[in-house]
Amino acid sequence: MSQPAPTQTDAPVSTGEVRRRRLFIGSCVALLSTSLAFAVIGAVTVALKQEFILSNSEVAWVIGANLWGFTITQAIFAPLCDRLGFRALLRVAFAGHLLGTGLMVFAGGFWTLFAGAVVIGMSNGTVEAACNPLVATLYPEQKSVKLNQFHVWFPGGIAVGGVAAFLLDQAGLGFWQLKLGLIAVPTLIYGALMLFDRFPATENVQAGVSTTEMLKATFLNPLMWLLLLAFSITASTELGPNRWVPAVLQAGFEGQSGFEGFVGLGVLILAYINGIMAMLRYYSDATVGRFSPTLILLAGTVVSAAGLLWLSYAQATGAIFLSATLFAVGVAYFWPTMLGLVAERIPRSGALGLGLMGGTGMAVVGLVTTPLMGDITDEYAHEQITSENTQQVVSTFREAAKTYPTMAEKAEGNFAQQIRGAATSAQEVVSTYENTGTLPAPQTANALRAIIDSQVAVESVRSGGDAPLAERASGIIGPADNYGGRVAFRYVVPFTCILLLIFGGLYWRDRRRGGYQTRSIHDGDEVHQEDLEEAQAEARATK
């Protein structure tokens, strides 16, 4: 294959026609759009469950779609980045962010939500397919440090989005549509900064690396395959739990005295975790610039595993914050340092190598980790309900089935539909219980959510009397979801043992060779270079 020619908007970085700082800032704002989407979709999971009567598994598919949609565009555009150029990819991302946000804001049910999440995820993937190699091209001598500083804005955006969602809740403006609409703000900003600016050619194009050489450096290098395996686990450790933190921890806070007046505390914890990650990445020159990437990844594995395990057991507020702090410190450097490792050790893999890493990580999180965590949460939440609250659940459902149909006749429009739907769901669970003696899963949890969702409708036609059934339902499903989610966190931890073996082995190999060494894109065949260095290290060891 021939070397792709630069597009008319491509130029070498050294010409002075490329505004490097402006492009770097624009890349950071584009990444802010992707992370803000991550944050606000996580922040509205409880509202979506109640609005559309979704199970944890269905919610997992919505938030997971935002992740694996990322993979689709990484697979499509990363190999084509050399040919299409950075600007074309960012224009696609810009249009997709606006379209996906619109689909979710005006969704009428699960499938529209799902489609919107896929489009947003695809736009997120396009941003990373363009901006990761763009940053590596803009700063060829500081790839790991600059990729860490660029990726400040993934946790930074989650922190911003989490705090914004929390403040909207406290101000009484916590409509899920408004939260999702926040995605459009940084989207419009990066569009203004980047869509009509001049971009450099990719590093591979500038170095004259052909498509064949890029493919060979990517797929024939055993180190690449090892790092892909490691990245799927580091991404799952970081992003899998982060997707569930708002819903799981909010459910736990709702069961504690002293937090009755607050909503969105789970999102605030997510913002806290990602604020720590952003700060550590911003000052990465003091860590990544001083220690080898393999040592940083090895240390991060130990710390993140300890933090996540602790978080899975933590129930007191202080323990939750301390364990969340430990977890945040552990995962802070995972994503950008892994990308930097590929860019520095396999530079001829270019945009394809970086895209393959990010796409694989997001695919595993979206298609495997997040749905499995949702299934585990549903399973253990149902066990918690049936082991401690069976009679209370049955009593609540019988009362709803008895009183709600009359209320539905007094209500109007959507309120009547909500009350009638809650009554139907409750009656179906009661009928199953009377016939089998067991509460069905996941219908029981969904019926509880339907009762919670109908609270405003019920209050519109009822005054006085006992505490609303919605409060009783919330008191049952909240602690159960919290317990199931914490168990799901626990299931992630054992996979970090694989990371200990991989990063420990790479660190030991680097020490054996005299320390961590980066490679230049001009070094030639990286596959044979690996073999040569291994032979030289063995020769030195035998002397």
- Level-2 CATH architecture of the largest domain: Up-down Bundle
Encode the helix/strand succession as letters: EHHHHHHHHHHEHHHHHHHHHHHHHHH
- Here the CATH topology of the largest domain equals Growth Hormone, Chain: A
Poorly predicted sequence stretches spanning 5 or more consecutive residues? 1-10
Mean pLDDT: 85
How many angstroms separate the termini? Answer: 44 Å
Largest beta sheet: strand ordering: 1-2
> What is the top-level CATH class of the largest domain?
Mainly Alpha
Number of strand elements: 2
- Class based on secondary structure composition and strand pairing: mainly alpha
Describe the largest sheet. Answer: 2 strands, parallel
Q: How large a portion of the residues is in β-strands, by DSSP E?
A: under 5%
Would you identify the CATH H-level superfamily of the largest domain?
A: MFS general substrate transporter like domains
Q: Please report the number of helical segments.
A: 25
Overall tally of domains: 2
Approximate helicity band: over 70%
Radius of gyration: 25 Å
Approximate shape = globular
